[in-house]
């Protein structure tokens, strides 16, 4: 059984002032109301989620919805804040995992191809990179090194190649082995500086000192 931690399902439609239980269902059935436009900032967040660990589904054969899961509730609340009204809510299941789900929306249909990897013409912007790194990135200290490097494990070949290319287009030297991408030490520091302040529940991923990294990860 899942329990709603953040429940944004019910409300009043701003177009017709009618009460609804499911906003997407109200829009799809109404003769007078239409799906609300998704802003470019929301699209950037959607792209960041899909490059990270988000996915799309449409169990009722209608417009798709975006789903994400994490053990870090503050992380999903931050994603919730970026997506705003598009989020239906966050639940917690029996395993302790938190799951965010958006409304079903026709505009999400353009992202079905992103499930296999970003398109060849995509650009790794700062908003996308912040979400991607907060979701899937991390730091590691190879061997006896006192400096970390940023790493991502990406099992899908097409997605890994697209991410490698996007990082390279931003001027980063990218190391590739097995199913992983990594940035050299200097590039890692430059990348984290470009991302800006740490995101909620991901501060350890910005900690360049190993002791601080371990300490922050324990409380994330």
Characterise this structure:
The protein has 220 residues and is α+β, with helices and mostly antiparallel strands. The chain folds into two domains: 3-115, Endonuclease I-creI, CATH 3.10.28; 126-219, Endonuclease I-creI (Roll). It is 34% helix and 20% strand. β4 and β5 (65-70) form a beta hairpin. It is globular and about 65 Å long.
Please give the alpha-carbon distance between the first and last residues.
25 Å
The helix/strand class is alpha+beta
- How many individual β-strands? 11
Strand fraction equals 15-25%
Tell me the number of structural domains: 2
Biggest sheet, strands in spatial order? 1-6-7-5-4
* Main beta-sheet strand count, sense and barrel state: 5 strands, antiparallel
Instruction: Identify the CATH class of the largest domain.
Output: Alpha Beta
The secondary-structure element order is EEEHHEEHEEHEEHEEHH
CATH superfamily of the largest domain: Homing endonucleases
- Contiguous low-pLDDT stretches (5 residues minimum) are none
Mean pLDDT: 91
Indicate the radius of gyration in whole angstroms. Answer: 19 Å
Per the CATH scheme, the topology name of the largest domain is Endonuclease I-creI
The helix content, as a percent range, equals 25-40%
CATH A-level architecture of the largest domain = Roll
Report the principal-axis shape. Answer: globular
Total of helices:
7
InterPro entries: Homing_endonucl (IPR027434)
Keywords: Plasmid
């Amino acid at each position: 059984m899942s329990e709603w931690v953040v429940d944004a399902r019910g409300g009043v439609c701003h177009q017709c002032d009618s009460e609804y239980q499911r906003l997407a269902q109200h829009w799809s059935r109404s003769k007078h109301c239409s799906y609300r436009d998704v802003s470019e900032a929301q699209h950037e967040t959607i792209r960041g989620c899909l490059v990270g660990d988000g996915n799309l589904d449409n169990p009722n054969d209608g417009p798709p919805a975006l789903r994400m899961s994490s053990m870090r509730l503050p992380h999903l609340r931050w994603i919730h804040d970026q997506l705003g009204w598009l989020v239906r809510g966050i639940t917690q299941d029996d395993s302790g995992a938190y799951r965010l789900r958006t409304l079903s929306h026709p505009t999400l249909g353009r992202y079905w191809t992103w499930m296999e990897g970003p398109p060849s013409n995509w650009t790794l912007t700062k908003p996308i990179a912040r979400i991607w790194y907060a979701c899937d990135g991390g730091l590691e200290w190879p061997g006896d090194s006192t400096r970390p490097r940023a790493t991502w494990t990406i099992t899908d070949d097409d997605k890994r190649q697209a991410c490698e290319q996007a990082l390279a287009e931003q001027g980063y030297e990218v190391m590739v082995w097995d199913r992983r991408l990594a940035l050299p030490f200097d590039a890692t520091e430059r990348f984290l500086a470009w991302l800006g302040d740490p995101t909620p529940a991901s501060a350890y991923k910005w900690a360049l000192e190993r002791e601080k990294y371990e300490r922050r990860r324990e409380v994330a």
